[in-house]
Amino acid sequence: MYEPYPTPDLARDHKKFRYSSLWTFAKQDLRLLVFLLVIGGFIGLGVGYFWVGLCIAFSIFFAFQLRSLYLVNEWISNRPYEAPPNLDGIWGALLFNVYRAQRQERVVQAEMVGLIDRAQSSLVALAEAVVLTDELHQIEWWNPAAEKLLGIQPLDRGRNLLTIIRQPSFIDYFNHIDKSPDGIKIKSSVFEEHYVQIKLTRFGSESRLLLAYDVTRIHNLEQMRKDFVDNISHELRTPLTVLSGYIETFTDQEDLNPRWKRAFDQMHSQTRRMNALVNDLLLLSRLEGNKQIAKNQIIEMPSLMNQLFDDAQAYNVDYGHTLNLDIDSHCDLIGSDTELASAFSNLITNAIKYTPKGGTVTIGWHDDGEHGYFTVQDTGIGIDPKHLPRLTERFYRVDSARSRQTGGTGLGLAIVKHVLMQHAAYLEVESKENQGSTFKVVFPKERLYNPDESLNSFEL
Ligand code: ADP
């Protein structure tokens, strides 16, 4: 067992002093004083110098006290970790209490040191990088994995972490931890083509704990999946265009044998579906890659809403719903017009598709000063609440047969989710089976642009 200091027989000593009050120890001193005075008095009387005898006795007592004081001082100054000198009386009690308090403190200290040692050695053994920074973002401590993964050197102690990991995405995350609860993935600055997932936790006032691990394998697998879908969609595009071109030509022929007409009609609708699927897959992969998307255009909402409403009316011809347009905001949106228009249009066509004939669909745009709300409300078939959490997954359908029947690809809401993510917006869905659904897109204030406020500026 770890035993850094000598152990006196505390139990015994404790017993000795346990029930003793200060008076008990003072009594020992008094007894000594009385004893010396009696002896001194008698001897003084015997030789005819009573008072001198008493003075000498008192001086001897005083010398005893001085010796005790000297021993106490010597122990405290030179040997505080050793057992205290064995003294009687008040000095002994004082020494014992000081020593006992000191020992208890040392035991607690040793326990704490042991605990810290264990915590530290487990952090050192971790394959994940761990870095601690103080309130000024200066590096206080890190483990060997942090040296390997993040390139932190012994000389970096006390340096600002942001001068070592300098990627803009990391700096942004460091300053706004709450925006990315799952952390962020960055390219490793130590190994080429390596990726590191970083998660920060704030503690104390402004100190931070950084955890990082290598996610290169997962990143590569994810990339392979994306590339595969991307490539296959591109490869399918050309043959599909050729096929649908021919099929359309044949379908349009007036002298087409009626026996073939049905087959060609079906081929036509299936190639259209495949085309839609390929286009959605390509759009999704472009959105995931975050490529070439301008997200800082000012989108005039009244004109976009009217455009969406006209398109909805054209699509609604076969359904005969009542369509309403409800605009109650002067704000425009800042973002990518094509992407947002496509996301909004997905929600509107879904509302029309999943509402039995003769229903009502209302398209709305509102704001409350803090958020902007694009809403699509329908009186359609609704969605069982158990499906809501998975609704924006790729190819997730509540009712596959119905979705295929309506020409759906199963990718519409996944696209909506990605477009919204890129605009720091999110989707809220409220639905009751057989009563209808409301899909609400919530935009943050930074995405709203009020043309009436001339000083309105944006930097995104
Ligand atoms: P799809 O192409 O199949 O419509 P989406 O991703 O657009 O794919 O939608 C996913 C599923 O969510 C749909 O299959 C449908 O079951 C359900 N859904 C979407 N919008 C509505 C709505 N307005 N009313 C009822 N169900 C809906």
TrEMBL record:
Keywords noted in UniProt: ATP-binding, Cell membrane, Kinase, Membrane, Nucleotide-binding, Phosphate transport, Phosphoprotein, Transferase, Transmembrane, Transmembrane helix, Transport, Two-component regulatory system
Function: Member of the two-component regulatory system PhoR/PhoB involved in the phosphate regulon genes expression. PhoR may function as a membrane-associated protein kinase that phosphorylates PhoB in response to environmental signals.
InterPro entries, alphabetized: BphY/WalK/GraS-like (IPR050351), HATPase_C_sf (IPR036890), HATPase_dom (IPR003594), His_kinase_dom (IPR005467), HisK_dim/P_dom (IPR003661), HisK_dim/P_sf (IPR036097), PAS (IPR000014), PhoR_N (IPR021766)
Protein name (Swiss-Prot/TrEMBL): Phosphate regulon sensor protein PhoR
PANTHER family: PHOSPHATE REGULON SENSOR PROTEIN PHOR (PTHR45453)
Sequence ranges assigned to domain Histidine kinase in this UniProt record: 231-447
Primary location recorded for the protein, binned into one broad class: membrane
Catalytic activity reported: ATP + protein L-histidine = ADP + protein N-phospho-L-histidine
SMART domains: HATPase_c (SM00387), HisKA (SM00388)
Entry GO terms, CC: plasma membrane
This enzyme's EC code(s): 2.7.13.3
Subcellular location: Cell membrane
Biological source species: Acinetobacter silvestris
Annotated transmembrane regions: 32-64
GO BP annotation list: cellular response to phosphate starvation; phosphate ion transport
One Pfam family this sequence matches: HATPase_c
An example molecular function term from Gene Ontology annotations: phosphoprotein phosphatase activity
